[in-house]
Design a protein that fits this description.
This protein is of the alpha+beta class. The chain is built from three helices and five strands, in the order αβαββαββ. It starts with 30 loop residues before the first helix and ends in a 9-residue tail after the last strand.
Length: 130
Amino acid sequence: QKDDDIEEGDLPEHKRPPAPIDFSKIDPGKPESILKLTKKGKTLMMFVTVSGNPTEKETEEITSLWQGSLFNANYDVQRFIVGSNRAIFMLRDGGYAWEIKDFLINQERCADVTLEGQVYPGKGAEESEK
C-alpha cells in the first residue's frame, strides 16, 4: 500500500520525471541551446570570480548587488561566498543560467563565470585572461 500521494512538484528533484525536451528548439550551431533545454527546471550552480584583489567583505557586497539586480529581474538566485574573491550562484531553474551568465560577465568587477565546466571571461578579467 502506498503512503500518502505526494504531488509531483513536491518530490525531490532527483525523483521527478525529466521535463520533455522540444528538439525543434535546438539550434545545431549552438551547443548551449541543448544545455539550456536539458537544465530547465533543474538546480544548477555557477562560480563567479570578482576581479581585483577584494576582501571577503567586498566580495560579499559586490555579489550582493548582482544578486539584487537579478532578483529585480525575477531570477531566483541564491548566493554563497566560497573565498575572498569567489561566490557560488545557485539557480532553482538552470534554464536561465546562460541569461544570468550574460548579465554577470558584463559587470565591471566580474573576472569570470564558470558554468557547466566552461569558463567565460568577464568585463573585469585581466587582458591576458580574455
